[in-house]
Amino acid sequence: MSSTSLALQRGKLEIKQFLRSRESVVFSLAFPLMMMVIFGSIFTFTIDGTDVKMTQYFVTGMIASGIISVSFQSLAIQIPIERDRGVLKRLQGTPMPKWAYFAGKIFMVAAIAVVEIILLLILATLMFDVDLPQTGQKWFTFAWVTFLGLTACTLLGIAFSSVARTGRSAPAVVTPVALVLQFISGVYFVYAALPHVMQQVAAIFPLKWMAQGLRSVFLPESFGQTEVAGSYELGKTALVLGAWCVIGLILCITTFRWTTKRDG
């Protein structure tokens, strides 16, 4: 079997396992959709000083939230559970190359993320009259922001999977981190209106930059003046997300564990 075929087969298996897990489907795939319905129904006003609907602003945060949910949060919970059950240890003893395991995870994350984004866009346009990007340049920006953000969060999810000591403790370790980042990164609230300290902390991590990059796609150019820096900072967004891709890869290589500490 060729390397590509092996990666695809492993990816299909990962998708099947994901869909068979009710918890994964609910918290990784359905949760952003539920939040979109709830908050979209509440946010019926326009942002102060602008003519931008809050739902138009909110959809950018929910897409970024969906990306981190199906990548970072999903992997950081799934992998410790598989490690705790001895799945990773057994895979080490098979002829399957180690890279195929990670290729399968990446394939699964990419496929679920595409479905998540499409569902969010359909929901936003049908229920809340959100306007989609009108130019090829904006769609290109949407593509590279999504790609870099998804890559960074996937690598960080694999790396963070080594933090939880057991599979049972993984949700308790990972979920608060993801939720805090969402609240301080401009997902549920206008980022510029958050306390300065929260802004400074959020600016360290990829989610803030994903949400900001996506705002440049779905919101008018003039809205960029209301951002903290006075613009969407797309160049800086690319640099920060790219840097996190490198950091995530280094952390994966140096910290990933195939067995639990009790296994030696």
TrEMBL record:
Any one biological process term the GO annotation gives: response to antibiotic
Xref: InterPro entries: ABC2_TM, ABC2_TM_bact-type, ABC_2_transport, Nod_factor_ABC_transporter
Membrane-spanning ranges: 25-45, 57-81, 102-127, 139-160, 172-191, 238-258
Keywords: Antibiotic resistance, Cell membrane, Membrane, Transmembrane, Transmembrane helix, Transport
Molecular-function annotations in GO: ABC-type transporter activity
Compartmental location: Cell membrane; Membrane
Keyword Ribonucleoprotein: no
Membrane topology per record: Multi-pass membrane protein
One Gene Ontology CC term in the entry: ATP-binding cassette (ABC) transporter complex
Keyword hit for Transmembrane helix: yes
Every ABC transmembrane type-2 domain range: 23-259
Family named by the database record: Belongs to the ABC-2 integral membrane protein family.
Name assigned to this protein: Transport permease protein
Native species: Allocatelliglobosispora scoriae
